[in-house]
Amino acid sequence: MSLSIDFLDETNELTEKETTHIVELLNLAAKMEKVEPESEVSITFVSDEKITEINKEYRNKDSVTDVISFAMEEMGEGEIELHGLDMPRILGDIIISVAKAKEQAEEYGHSFMRELGFLAVHGFLHLLGYDHETTEEEKEMFSRQKDILDEFGLRR
Predict the structure, then answer these.
(1) CATH of the domain at 96
(2) Number of structural domains the chain divides into
(3) SS3 content of the chain, % helix, strand, coil (to 5)
(4) Which of 6, 20, 60, 146 is deepest in the core (most CB within 10 A)?
(5) pLDDT digits over 71-85, tens only?
(6) Residue 43: which domain range?
(7) pTM value?
């Protein structure tokens, strides 16, 4: 009973241990959020240059960022809802900049693994519909992030 995770490290910088930790962390997050087993998510680790390109193309922001999520369940115009067709739930894609994660880990004074975990969970919660546009949304989302990371043992 776990997520189906399509894992891609375009940077070839992550260790097998880090990769395993992220997979275990996302499975814990899915369990804590009561996500259906076999739901699909993709997580890709990229360079600053690549995430800047993606940020510019999809968000019209010509700058580097740490994590971007593309939720598959947000209905676009003319799209048809496919729930109940006995297909796995496809949550979407999480894209993380490895260089930005390393930079932020140093800046915040915690481990690279803690930062990677934070970004993975942050992106995952966005796929589930969490947001931080308002103070209430931010409180709820950041509280869930902290609960999941603490449960996993990735405290600040």
Answers:
(1) 3.40.390.30
(2) 1
(3) 45, 15, 35
(4) 146
(5) 986 555 544 555 555
(6) 4-152
(7) 0.90
